[in-house]
Amino acid sequence: MISMPEMPEVESIKRTLEKNINGQVIKNVIVLLPRMIKYPDSISYVKMLSGHKIKQIQRRGKYLIMQMDNEIMAVFHLRMTGRLCYVNKNKQEDKYERIIFELNNGDKLIYADTRTLGTLYCIKPGELDKIKGLYELGPEPLSAEFTLEYLQSKLKNNRGKIKSFLLNQKNIAGLGNIYVDESLFLAGIYPETKACNINKKKAGKLIEAVNKVIKDGINDGGTTFRDYVNGKGEKGTHQEKLFVYGRDKKQCKKCGTIIEKIKVGGRGTCFCPHCQKLIK
User: Do 65 and 122 lie in a common domain?
Assistant: First the structure.
């Protein structure tokens, strides 16, 4: 089972990396697969980063952002199988290395990607619109902007299915298949319910559920089924606590009903038919 790193996974990568790379100087960048770099070209990418200090690493939605001392932002979108890890000079190479950042202390920051679906960018101040997905992100779970009033305003005229609504990064940033399925289960909402049919009470439960699953995912270091590891190469443990995602044909942990799996907006979706009723 392969799943894209979501907000908890990317946050875990950020937290494990910042202890090692903040304040480090990138001596050189070795580009082994130039097509991973979407903006600018790979030669310019190397020039913009080489010789400059990493001030801090940040996260926005599912994106990682390295803020450099020359005001350049190096942006990483890991997608399905991207990994960003800090490795010491003596560690064995990753056979899926695509970009290598050589640091002033002799260690390396490695971007590896099995399926090569990830994307890397270097942008100057004022160029955020070069990365459309990052530029258009909505508020994040656990943020002051993610309020009941905000959610209700987005739901009321949306006739799409709630599962698809939650996956849309313009509505809420950082959610993916795992945490959407888990949130809908905890809120007791059937995934094909129309967004506009969710009343204030259910919207409140959904806010609580989203914040809980994201917070728990971060505390557990993320969810690992196959490829995801944090910035130190460690797997997450949240997969051990999932209620519905990846548990089709197994018993619901709450009521014992068999978990079912359907397609919603082309995405595999697991739910409990007893705990999650359709809101009409």
Answer: yes
- 40 is annotated as an active-site residue: no
The dihedral sign for the CA sequence 227, 229, 232, 235: negative
Of 5, 8, 141, 191, the active-site residue reads: 5
- Say whether 62 is catalytic: yes
| pTM of the predicted protein model | 0.94
Residue 39 dihedral angles phi and psi, to the nearest 5°: -165, 135
123 and 161, same domain (yes or no):
no
- How confident is the model at residue 280, as a pLDDT? 67
Q: How many CB atoms lie within 10 A of CB 226?
A: 11
130 and 152 together in one domain: no
Question: Is 250 labeled as catalytic in the residue annotation?
Answer: no
Identified catalytic residue from 6, 18, 97, 140: 6
Residue of 27, 127, 267, 273 marked catalytic: 267
Prior bond of 40 cis (ω within 30°): yes
Q: Which one of 105, 135, 165 terminates a domain?
A: 135
Instruction: Give me the catalytic one of 62, 83, 163, 247.
Output: 62
For 187, the token pair is 């809120």
pLDDT in tens, 34-50: 999 999 999 999 999 99
Annotate 3-32 with b (16+ C-beta within 10 A) or e (fewer).
bbbbbbbbbbbbebbbebbeebebbebebe
At 88-106, the pLDDT tens digits run 977 767 889 999 999 999 9
